[in-house]
Amino acid sequence: ERVEKGKLRRELGINENTRIIGNVARLDRPKNPVRFLNIAEKVLKQTKHIVFMWIGGNIVEDAYSDYVSKYMQSHPEFQSRLFFLGFRKDAPELMADFDIFLLTSDSEGFPLVLLEAMHHGVVPVVTKNGCQKDIIKNGENGYLYESEQEAAELILQMVGDTNKLQNLSRNAKKAIERFSLSNFVGMYRELYKN
After folding, report:
1. Where are the alpha helices (DSSP H) in the chain?
2. pLDDT tens for residues 45-94?
3. Which of 101, 109, 48 is nearest to 77 (CA)?
């Protein structure tokens, strides 16, 4: 559904000149929050006008939420630029304020959260596994990455080039039209016919 942008920025006092890099996922092993932290650290050390945001808590194990807590305590310099919000019922609304969606999963099937982000015009930077490669046309509507360094460099490039970020955002929104419910039902129908 269409949502009004601005809720997350208002809630956390993030101005319009600051880029938000975010993820919406469980804080568990398959989603790899450690990779998220490593990429965030590489980027935050190089620029001031970016914040990183993780929306979601742990379900299966406490190890990753404990790791995040310890990381945040040992890196006070990132306290106002790195946020872990836990589970939020309004995550789709908050995600609309992201500029870049940073998917850090070790494996995925077909991540619906990626389509939700793209629906809002959020530019995806995602791990190169699962069906992401069927959704993302590298460099056209987002980016696939293999290393943390590559992801950090892609983020820094995009936040430094507003025109590029806007073009990718438009292309991301347009790309998900082929994943509409009617298209999906039609594709399944054709698959079963054949």
Report:
1. 7-12, 33-44, 63-74, 91-95, 112-119, 132-135, 148-159, 162-175, 181-193
2. 999 999 999 999 988 778 888 999 999 999 999 989 999 999 999 999 99
3. 48
